[in-house]
Task: inverse folding
């Protein structure tokens, strides 16, 4: 049985059953970003998962996808200033010369008629403590036009400690919530490009200082009390299409 829910801007037809669909609106624009995932997306390197951009008058469906090459926005998404950062993990094994703190490639391409600027880097040679998954708790939050702020923030797990009140630029913020809109956690991706401590492959138990680091940190922020996801908009924030 085909299921069509045009009010939410997507279709779930018999041949394209989605596992998840998130939407992010672009301020002062007719365009909408979608982050989608189909069954099998985590076992194949294909178009089964990713992000795409559509006119807000269009209904999301598989045939409309023009998949963007990367998922990380360098700045808050704005039409005319859509900038993506990509990290190449394809070289294995790497050498120390492979990690560069300057882009390996820059180009511009249109996706569904919208211009997107792409910048690529090679990833870190070795592993960096300030990349990967880190977990925090917070009491409250506040959204502004450009950012999301957490209050009484404390670290649960990870190498990066933030001030009690910390703000993050919109674009790479995702709300994970329940069917009744209770926030489970908020996930934020942050690109880490600079110098710092790493564990080199040949000395995995010893931190080596002042080494090039190119990677992503994934922060998960868990509320200490029940917070309804409807307090947040989806302008610059990924929210689940229900």
Result:
């Amino acid at each position: 049985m085909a299921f069509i829910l045009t009010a939410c801007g997507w279709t779930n037809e018999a041949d394209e059953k989605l596992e998840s669909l998130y939407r992010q609106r672009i301020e002062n624009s007719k365009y909408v970003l979608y982050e989608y995932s189909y069954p099998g997306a985590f076992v194949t390197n294909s178009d089964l998962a990713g992000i795409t951009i559509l006119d807000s008058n269009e209904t999301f469906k598989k045939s409309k996808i023009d998949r963007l090459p990367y998922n990380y926005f360098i700045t808050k998404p704005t039409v005319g200033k859509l900038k993506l950062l990509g990290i190449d993990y394809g070289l294995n094994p790497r050498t120390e010369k492979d990690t560069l703190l300057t882009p390996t490639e820059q180009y511009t391409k249109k996706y569904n008629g919208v211009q997107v600027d792409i910048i690529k880097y090679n990833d870190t040679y070795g592993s960096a403590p300030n990349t990967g998954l880190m977990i925090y708790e917070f009491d409250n939050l506040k959204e502004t036009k450009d950012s999301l702020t957490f209050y009484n923030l404390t670290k649960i797990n990870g190498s990066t400690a933030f001030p009690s009140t910390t703000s993050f630029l919109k674009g790479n913020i995702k709300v994970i919530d329940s069917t009744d809109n209770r926030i489970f956690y908020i996930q934020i991706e942050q690109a880490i490009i600079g110098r710092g401590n790493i564990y080199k492959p040949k000395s995995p138990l010893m931190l080596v200082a002042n080494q090039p680091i190119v990677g992503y940190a994934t922060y998960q922020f868990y509320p200490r009390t029940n917070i309804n996801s409807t307090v947040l908009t989806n302008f610059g924030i990924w929210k689940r299409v229900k």
Notes: Confidence is low (pLDDT under 50) at residues 1-15. The first strand starts at residue 3 and ends at 5. Residues 180 and 228 are 8 Å apart (CA to CA). DSSP finds no helices and 18 strands in the chain.
